Automatic annotation (TrEMBL), chain A:
<dbReference type="InterPro" id="IPR006789">
    <property type="entry name" value="ARPC5"/>
</dbReference>
<dbReference type="GO" id="GO:0034314">
    <property type="term" value="P:Arp2/3 complex-mediated actin nucleation"/>
</dbReference>
<protein>
    <recommendedName>
        <fullName>Actin-related protein 2/3 complex subunit 5</fullName>
    </recommendedName>
</protein>
<dbReference type="GO" id="GO:0003779">
    <property type="term" value="F:actin binding"/>
</dbReference>
<comment type="function">
    <text>Functions as component of the Arp2/3 complex which is involved in regulation of actin polymerization and together with an activating nucleation-promoting factor (NPF) mediates the formation of branched actin networks. Arp2/3 complex plays a critical role in the control of cell morphogenesis via the modulation of cell polarity development.</text>
</comment>
<dbReference type="InterPro" id="IPR036743">
    <property type="entry name" value="ARPC5_sf"/>
</dbReference>
<dbReference type="GO" id="GO:0030833">
    <property type="term" value="P:regulation of actin filament polymerization"/>
</dbReference>
<keyword id="KW-0206">Cytoskeleton</keyword>
<dbReference type="GO" id="GO:0005885">
    <property type="term" value="C:Arp2/3 protein complex"/>
</dbReference>
TrEMBL record, chain B:
<dbReference type="GO" id="GO:0005885">
    <property type="term" value="C:Arp2/3 protein complex"/>
</dbReference>
<dbReference type="Pfam" id="PF00400">
    <property type="entry name" value="WD40"/>
</dbReference>
<dbReference type="InterPro" id="IPR017383">
    <property type="entry name" value="ARPC1"/>
</dbReference>
<keyword id="KW-0206">Cytoskeleton</keyword>
<dbReference type="GO" id="GO:0051015">
    <property type="term" value="F:actin filament binding"/>
</dbReference>
<feature type="repeat" description="WD">
    <location>
        <begin position="35"/>
        <end position="69"/>
    </location>
</feature>
<comment type="function">
    <text>Component of the Arp2/3 complex, a multiprotein complex that mediates actin polymerization upon stimulation by nucleation-promoting factor (NPF). The Arp2/3 complex mediates the formation of branched actin networks in the cytoplasm, providing the force for cell motility. In addition to its role in the cytoplasmic cytoskeleton, the Arp2/3 complex also promotes actin polymerization in the nucleus, thereby regulating gene transcription and repair of damaged DNA.</text>
</comment>
<keyword id="KW-0677">Repeat</keyword>
<comment type="similarity">
    <text>Belongs to the WD repeat ARPC1 family.</text>
</comment>
Amino acid sequence: MAKNTLPSRFRKVDVDEFDENKFVEEHDEATEQPGPDTGEVDNLIRQYPMAAVVAFHVALRNPPINSKNPVIKEKAQAVVLRVLTSFKSSDIEPAVKSLDSNGIDLLMKYVYKGFEKPSENSSAVLLQWHEKAFAVGGLGSIVRVMTSRKTI
Amino acid sequence: MHFVQMKTKIALCPNNHDVHIYKKEGNGWTKTQVLKEHNGQVTGIDWAPESNRIVTCGTDRNAYVWTLKGDVWKPTLVILRINRAARCVKWSPKENKFAVGSGSRLISVCYFEQENDWWVCKHIKKPIRSTILCLDWHPNNILLAAGSCDFKCRIFSAYIKEVEEKPAPTPWGSKMPFGEVMFESTGTAGWVHGVCFSESGNRVAWASHDSTVAVAEGGKTAVITSLSSETLPLLCVTFITENSLVAAGHDCYPALFVYDGEKGTLTFGGKLDVPKQSAQKGLTARERFQNLDKKATSDTKEAVLESLHKNSISQISILQGGKAKCAKFCTTGMDGGMAIWDVKTLESAMKDLKIV
């Protein structure tokens, strides 16, 4: 086999960084949200089924949309997934109905994010939530997940 | 397919390098002329009714202004000075200028220079960061709304001192030097596919790829109201009264939206295409089983679109009545079809529909 003896450091240069026409996202002035409060959510899950819907709403509060910190985003995703899996199938629909249109869009975002990294039973649960959220939000809510540049 | 309609004539491009002109004869349309000059697909056509000139733009980075000499349309090349495809073109209300949106991330505003007998253009570049998809002129002939792939709808001043007087103040602002940004949208994401000024010019509506439609009202600070819909993204939007919008897109039917300036709300007013109920035929047991085997469902609904248009609607044009009291509008789609809708008939056919 031929061995490369010439300098090849140039191959590690990211040429896209030097593109003067590169689209740079404008910095959003909004404050960074810290993600839902794990402690509060845990407490409420333990009180299932009474506080289930409350846990649900708390988990959807403060989505880490403007954050560039992947740790915060991972944590938020884990919290939401825990709440979603703790629900009984029959309780999903009323919980979804209690959300407003922004809530539905946010729920859809978490569902699709959950699909990206499936764990044991997560996809089956997420599919149930997806079906109920789709019934309310329609194709528009899915389109907004795909087109939104503010990822959770 | 792009098209423009005058009272009895239509200019359209069947997705190739040519423009076909049709004339209405009785109940049908006959092709009268074919305009061949573009070297690339024609992406925009606009017909100026008063001066009877057609402007076309295409992926060959050129625009041509066509004037009728006898029975033949003669083209005049307009140098746009762009290095990407032209995407859309619109004559200004007074027909002394036209604007071309392109993939070069700028708008070319063209006007005729008498002494050189030649169309000249000026560029609006800042702060556009991506392709311009759609344009609409304000009735004052100066302000221009542009929807772009950089997720923004903006209103620019396209004031050309060589051809017009300084404009009077409008709700969008009073100082309007060429290229000034009078308004930039916030709150919606997604490419802006369609943009439209209301008849008065005080409101502008736009449809974005995130399945939203929004209206902004000019003022000291512009007030933006948007609606997230449950449908697929809309591609085109137009005002039919000062408060009502008709929009259509990938769902293949036009829909009504109502704007209430006082309450600050934008609501869905109803689908305007209610397909006739086709007779439901019963399924035999064999057919049920076949459906189950083929489609994993024994649902009797056929996988056929029941709407009039069988593919996305890409353009809506007002035919009669203007944007304040539209009586007829026309939709054209990617199915190559053109449908004319009568507002009065729609109002009486759909009992909960109210056009305010």
